[in-house]
Amino acid sequence: MGALHAGHVSLMRKARKLAGATGRVAVSIFVNPAQFGPGEDFSRYPRTFARDCRLCEEAGVDLVFHPEPEDTYPAGFSTHVDEERVSLDLCGKSRPGHFRGVCTVVLKLFNILAPDAAVFGEKDYQQVAVIRRMARDLNVPVRIVTAPTVREPDGLALSSRNAYLSPQERAQAPIIRRALLLARDAKSARPAGLARLVRRQIATMPLAKIDYVEVLDAQSIEQAGPATRELLIACAVFFGKTRLIDNIRRKYRNA
After folding, report:
1. What is the pTM of this model?
2. Last residue of a domain, one of 147, 179, 208
3. Which residue of 35, 56, 139, 191 has the smallest Cβ count within 10 Å?
């Protein structure tokens, strides 16, 4: 959605490597109104298109696709894409309609650009899972590739929304990563206990307001069960009006 940072650049570089000397790399920059709910930050979401284009060029991108909302959603637009399983928990529960907007616009982008592969960041873990499921279910001939989350030196995951944080909020925000690391390294792997641990740690920061902390099966994004081999520990936390997400994975030792 623009306001590019080093995390986005890492995706471009991975795409450039995948494309090789003869392939082409395209970046879509589109602040998608369909994935913002009422009262969310669509109008104030940072838009830095000229700077974004410079970063793309430096990373070896061949094409920047920057459609206008009225071209993406023309008058009378009435077709949407709903993924009805992987999207139900986590951000899907907290932001109704969000993944409907994500799936719709990503499928449109896939149809327009027809990529062989598409690269997404692991910070948006559920988004990747939803898009991968959509591509599988609708027979979209694209390979979904992921790249690790890029972080600040203090562990805070890079996000375009970090620019909203006040100095005091920014100083407290790294508690998210510290809490997730504690859960990853905890002796017990019981999902309920790991969720409590993360909640307790984040609650030590007075400016933090937890949206959710969930521990789920990393493959299905559903409750862990006998077949679970890896857990996803995911959270969303508000600092002021800024909502930050992050996640970590760990082995499910009780499997």
Report:
1. 0.94
2. 147
3. 139
The pLDDT value given to residue 255:
47
User: DSSP character for 151?
Assistant: B
154 part of a folded domain: no
Residue 237: CATH number of its domain: 3.30.1300.10
Both 129 and 226 in a single domain? no
What integer pLDDT is reported at residue 235 of this predicted model?
98
Residue 8 is a catalytic residue? yes
Same domain assignment for residues 132 and 32: yes
Enumerate the β-bridge partners of residue 151: 157
Task: Write down the pLDDT at residue 254.
Answer: 62
Q: Give me the amino acid identity at 54.
A: R
Q: Are residues 84 and 133 in the same domain?
A: yes
Q: Among the options 8, 66, 80, 98, which is catalytic?
A: 8
Q: Within a 10 A sphere around the Cβ of 230, how many other Cβ atoms?
A: 13
For residue 182, the enclosing domain spans 160-251
Q: Can you tell me the distance from the alpha carbon of 11 to that of 16, in angstroms, rounded to the nearest whole number?
A: 9
**What tokens appear for 116 in the block?**
């062989």
Q: Give mean pLDDT in consecutive 10-residue pieces for the chain, a chain of 255 residues.
A: 95 97 97 93 93 97 96 96 97 96 98 97 98 98 98 97 97 98 95 97 98 97 95 98 97 73
User: Angle, nearest 10°, between helix axes 6-19 and 49-58?
Assistant: 40
- Say if CB 177 and CB 155 are below 8 A apart: yes
Say if residues 62 and 26 touch (Cβ distance below 8 Å).
Answer: yes
One domain for residues 60 and 137:
yes
